[in-house]
Amino acid sequence: MLGIARLAPLGYHDSGMTGWPQNAAPEAFINAPIDEAAGRLAAILREEATGGTRVVVTTYDWHGVYGHPDHVQAHRVAKRAATMAGIAEVWESTSNRDRLRELRAMALGGPEGDPMREFFSDWDVDAPADDANPFGEPASAIALEVDVAAWAATKRRAILCHASQAPDTGWAERVPPELFALAFGLEHFAREGVPGPPRRGWILD
C-alpha cells in the first residue's frame, strides 16, 4: 500500500490552508503540474508492482475532506498516477458526515465545559468548509470503514503535533481517551464505483 506522502522527498513542500502565503511558492505541492507530479508517483507505483505485487493507492477524497489545498492536489495527483501506472485499487480517505452529525448532536447534549461539546459547538459538519463544500462525505458515498480505536492514542498525538492546525486541535488534549476513541476510532474510505453504506473491514481484505 502506497500513500501520497512518498511525494514529499521528490522536491515538493507542503502548502497551507487557502490564502496562506507559502501557497504561492513555485515548489509548493499545489503548484506542481499534475502530470509531472503524477509521473513521479507512477514511477514509484510501477516499481512497487514489479513481480506482480499487489499495489493499493490511498489518497484523499475529491475535495480533500475539508478543502485543504494539499489534500485536493493529492487526490488529483494520486488518481492520475494510478491511471498512468495501471493501478486499479484507489481508496480515498474521507469522513462520514452522517456519523459526525450524530456525534455532534450527542456532544451538544453534554454538560457545560465538556471538551467534545466545546469542539462541536463551533463546528457544523454541514456548513461550508474551506472549499465551500461540507466536511467529508455522506455514508451513501463511503465504501469502507476501518476500526482504528486501538490506535486512538497515537492518532491523538499525531493531531497535537500538527502545528499549523493548533488553534483548531487544542481540544484534542482535553478530551478523555475513551471519548476520543469513540469519536475518532473509525477511518472511512470511498472508492469509485463502490457505493455505501460502508462495510466494516480493511483495505486489503
Give the SSE layout.
Layout: E1 2-3, H1 34-48, E2 57-60, H2 64-67, H3 69-85, E3 90-94, H4 97-108, H5 115-121, E4 144-147, H6 152-160, H7 166-169, H8 177-184, E5 186-190, E6 199-200
What does this structure look like?
With 205 residues, this protein is α/β, with parallel strands linked by helices. Helices cover 37% and strands 11% of the residues. The protein is built from 8 helices and 6 strands, in the order E-H-E-H-H-E-H-H-E-H-H-H-E-E. It has helices at 34-48, 64-67, 69-85, 97-108, 115-121, 152-160, 166-169, 177-184, and strands at residues 2-3, 57-60, 90-94, 144-147, 186-190, 199-200. Strands 1-2-3-5-4-6 form a 6-stranded mixed beta sheet. Helix 1 (34-48) crosses helix 3 (69-85), helix 4 crosses helix 5 and helix 6 crosses helix 8 (177-184). It is globular and about 55 Å long. The chain starts with a strand and ends in a 5-residue tail after the last strand. Residues 1-7 have low confidence and may be disordered.
Key traits:
globular; 8 helices; 6-stranded mixed beta sheet; alpha/beta; 205 residues
Count of DSSP strands: 6
Low-pLDDT stretches are: 1-7
Rg to the nearest angstrom?
18 Å
Q: Based on helices, strands and strand pairing, what is the structural class?
A: alpha/beta
Oligomer: single chain
Beta-strand share of residues: 5-15%
Strand order of the largest sheet: 1-2-3-5-4-6
Count up the helices.
8
Helix content: 25-40%
What is the straight-line distance between the termini? 12 Å
Mean pLDDT: 84
- Secondary-structure element string: EHEHHEHHEHHHEE
- Give a quick account of the main beta sheet: strands, pairing sense, barrel closure: 6 strands, mixed
Shape: globular
